[in-house]
Amino acid sequence: MKKAMAAILSAAMLGTLVSCGNSKNESKESENNSSNAGKTIGIAMPNQNLDRWNSDGEYLKQKFESAGYKVELTFSSGDATKQNNDIIGMIDNGVDLLLVAAVDGSRLSKTLDAAKEKNIPVIAYDRLIMDTNAVTYYITFDNESVGKMQGEYVRDALSLDTTDGPYNIEFIAGDANDNNAKVFFKGEYEALEDYIESGKLNILSGKKKFEMVTTPGWSTENAEKHMKTIIKDYYSDGEQLDAVICANDSTALGVIQALESGYNGKAPVIVGQDGDVANLKAIVDGTQAMTVFKNVKDEAGVAYEVCKTLLDGGIPAADFVKTLPVDVKYDSDAYNNNVKYVQSYILAPQLIDEDNLQLLVNAGLYKWDSNNKYLESAT
Ligand code: BGC
User: Fold this and answer.
1) Which has the closest alpha carbon to 295: 185, 211, 378, 229?
2) Which of 42, 126, 228, 301 could disulfide-pair with 90, CB 3.0 to 4.6 Å?
């Protein structure tokens, strides 16, 4: 009942986002500023391994190009050195603005100082860029809420408030070089901390700290390897594993694969993030319980508006959210990159499980396959 109500509420919310997005977007498109024609946006995405960065790159490119800008778009194969070189190349080519989703948020400082010297604005996309004052804005989702949603989902799925337990849980986090990974873990852990402290939830591996559960490159293979070791050491003698919180869907896939070999207990509740097609299939098949969906089209849309305003000589601040096509929170003291608080525009994530998959279709990003069973990308 609680779940059904949550689904109805979230359907209503997403519906608002989607319809609101459409109508305002249309009016924005029609007021393209021809004075920007000829300006070039440098977009640096981390890699092409996931559904999402391909989509982000594609939406951003389309958005800027249809408004008359030129776009240089790079993907850096998850390699921080390559991303530095890609960005240096874009600075040398004379881009007017840089929009960067960092491979390693702490390894761009020198390169971005060079951008600052040339008065090229630098905007952090999805991942905060650390240790530099060259970055002026940050567009992202509420990353702590992503983790909180995952933790609370597990709390409800295991009925932690109404049953005695104890239950066993493990955490698989993201890449240590991505600031987001820490924030997701914080949200996850804090949502379950009381149950862990009281002994209702046990972590048999003892891996309670972010540093102990990170996944280099956010890769499926590394998550699978890590989970296989945990299973071998702690869950191969009949112990029950009740839940695994995976920072995102690529790591969740690794965990699902690891469980297929070597684990004989009842399937745990697995949660992830992103709404990757393979994981939406796993949700239909029952091997994954939920994912946190972040509408990258909305994120790209907000990034576009911030960049465009800057290039037009505007200075986005708190009131700017009123002009945006989707519901966004402005926060100037939430995200500190070790040098300063970066002005941030924060979008709302959305919980997706087997009960509300249709929301993704309503958002226009996925469609049902010919058997009406699984979701596939609509683009
Ligand atoms: C993003 C996630 C993504 C992960 C791996 C994070 O920074 O917020 O959506 O799954 O990187 O690429």
Assistant:
1) 378
2) 42
